[in-house]
Design goal:
The structure is a single chain. This protein has 256 residues and is α/β, with parallel strands linked by helices. The chain has one domain. The protein has 14 helices and eight strands. A six-stranded parallel beta sheet has the order 4-3-8-7-5-6. The protein has a two-stranded antiparallel sheet with strand order 1-2. Strand 5, helix 7 and strand 6 form a beta-alpha-beta unit. Helix 2 packs across helix 6, helix 5 runs parallel beside helix 14 and helix 12 packs antiparallel against helix 13. It starts with 5 loop residues before the first helix and ends in a 9-residue tail after the last helix.
Length: 256
Amino acid sequence: METTSPAFESTYRQILGVSFFVGAARQAVEAGCRGGLVVAPAAPALVELGRDGEYRRALLEADVVLTDSAFMVLLWNLMMGDRIRRVSGLEYLEVLLSRPEFREPGASFWVMPSVASMERNLAWLQSGGYAVREEDCYLAPRYPGGQIADGRLVELLQRRRPQHIIIGLGGGVQEKLGLYLKAHCAAPPGIHCIGAAIGFLSGDQVRIPKWADRSGLGWLFRCLSSPKRFVPRYLGALRLAPVLWRYRSRMPDAVA
């Protein structure tokens, strides 16, 4: 019979069939910078684990899965009597950007959702002394549902060979793109799916104070900033409660 080692148990938890990293943010960054795929799934996307096979595969094949969802962490700790910590995408990004290589030209490559986001994020990065130029950014096309492929992006990355790829797209999309890049880039660098985190710092999205992020209240600031956009999203995330109650550490059954 297989048993889980104490070392594994202290650093990871199997939640909904996915191995979540539950160590400190700095440990997560160190692991992510060794190469591979880092994802930070939010509650609205986790609800779809049983319906979206490609998203499920991205989480299962990721090298580091962050406990970004404050709602999932709260539910898990209440249900299981556990005390796992939350590492948000924002906290992860701040630690990641503290690494000295981000001050070096060509070390990082950023996948952005729009021209407006790219301009705001670039301005913030450059004002902070980060050596990121427009040539170090890629405007993602509107990817279709299901499996994602982007040969043009792979060719660009193979020419530039950055140490880090930072993907700032929406949840449910960025993880699939990250999985594709991990499979198609020779000697893949660190692929960090951080979603809206850069926008919280640059002002592209509502700014979330550190105390609010640490308290798991980032969702409230987003809802207040754009109720029509975010309130339905987070109300839908409440469906995670019965899913987690039913499956606990098991992957939800696939739904056709």
